[in-house]
Amino acid sequence: MTRKASIAAVALALLAGCAAAPPRKDYAKLIAANPRSILVVPVVNKSVDVDAPAYFLSTLPVPVAERGYYVFPVNLVKRLLEDEGLSDASLVHSADPMRLCSLFGADAVLLVSIERWDAKYLLIATQVTVEFEYALKDGKTGETLWTDKQAMVYSSDSGGGGGGLGSLIAAVVSAAVTKAAPNYMPLARQANSQAMAFPGPGFPAGPYLPSYKKDRPTPESQ
Amino acid sequence: MTRATGVAATVVLAAALQGCATPTYYAWGAYDDALYAHYKNPQEREAFVENLKKVLLEAEKEGRRVPPGINAEYGYALYEEGRYVEAVVYFQKERDQWPESLVLMEKMIRNAQRQKPASPTPAQGPAGALEKR
């Protein structure tokens, strides 16, 4: 394959990731619960990077709010939970979602865990991986309304050739991967935007979007 | 590969990698970057608070709705500086613009009103500095 063709293939693959066919997902509970507001609480960290949860938390409110839901101020929520003695995110996640939501007056709570957030330095490439699990729980019933899982891998040639696809992508993501400090943020944002996209695996439009209630699969079409 | 093709490929890749960058529904400004920087360098709180204020001012200037949570985050920054009276103003804005925030904002307003008023001397904190008109 020529270089041009291979670049096109990668670009297509990346774009396809955005416009992926919606996986068959049961939206009945989410649509029935019809939340207007989503509480985004600190994330559980299963990686070894101690900074990951706070960094990742900063990427969550925008994509959720952009789906048309009211998103509670994440930093304020984080501080209040800390004041309540819940500075450990796993305590928050294991708390009763109904109680959690009622504390803040939220319709639903988004629980996200970081499964992977690491960089591997291979012989000629650096590979950065992020992986997240998302779950939306109902504040009224405690039931899980929606879940998703996203993994993103970015690999770059760190040596050899001096050109080609690896260096092109590396330039594009503004040196996302450097030996000193890999930048996970573009990957994290990409994972979120894929998780929230609709049609796709994400949330149907919330009350603040003009497409509210117009983009939802009807029970008949499911 | 021609130069033009290379540029085009780069543009496509950039768009793809930015998560299919489309214009956002709300004017977020640098909110998420500011939040990230705040967690990365908590000692640079001033920049965080300034950025919050900037999002509010930009939205106001453009006549757009302030994104959810920003008035509350800014109010909380004032609250942390002991500027309880001003904090209440922003908690009220959040509550009035986003009825979903009612329960939390009423709590925050009650908390702020329960606190002793800050000393009459102007606060030295960054949010205080930004409040000067």
List the helices and strands and how they pair.
The complex is a heterodimer of chains A (222) and B (133).
Chain A: H1 3-18, H2 28-33, E1 37-40, E2 44-45, H3 52-57, H4 61-65, E3 70-71, H5 74-83, H6 89-94, H7 97-104, E4 108-121, E5 125-138, E6 144-157, H8 164-172, H9 185-196
Chain B: H1 3-17, H2 31-40, H3 45-62, H4 70-80, H5 84-97, H6 102-114, H7 126-131
Helix pairs in contact in B: 2-3, 3-4, 4-5, 5-6
Please provide the ordered H/E string of secondary-structure elements of chain A. HHEEHHEHHHEEEHH
Helix-strand string of chain B: HHHHHHH
**pLDDT < 50 stretches of chain A:** 158-163
Instruction: Give me the CATH superfamily of chain A.
Output: ABC-type transport auxiliary lipoprotein component
Question: What is the subunit arrangement here?
Answer: heterodimer
Poorly predicted regions of chain B: 1-20, 128-133
Give a short account of the largest sheet of chain B: none
Biggest interface goes to: A-B, 52 and 41 residues
State the end-to-end CA separation of chain B: 57 Å
Net shape of chain A: globular
Strand content of chain A: 15-25%
Mean pLDDT, all residues of chain B: 82
Model description:
- With 222 residues, chain A is of the alpha/beta class.
- Chain A contains 9 helices and 6 strands.
- In chain A, strands 1, 2, 3, 4, 5 and 6 form a 6-stranded mixed beta sheet that branches.
- The longest helix of chain A has 16 residues, at 3-18.
- Chain A is globular, with a radius of gyration of 19 Å.
- Chain A starts with a helix and ends in a 26-residue tail after the last helix.
- Chain B is mostly helical.
- The N and C termini of chain B lie far apart (57 Å).
- Residues 1-20 and 128-133 of chain B have low confidence and may be disordered.
- Chains A and B meet through helix 1, helix 3, helix 4, strand 3 and helix 5 of A and helix 1, helix 2, helix 4 and helix 6 of B.
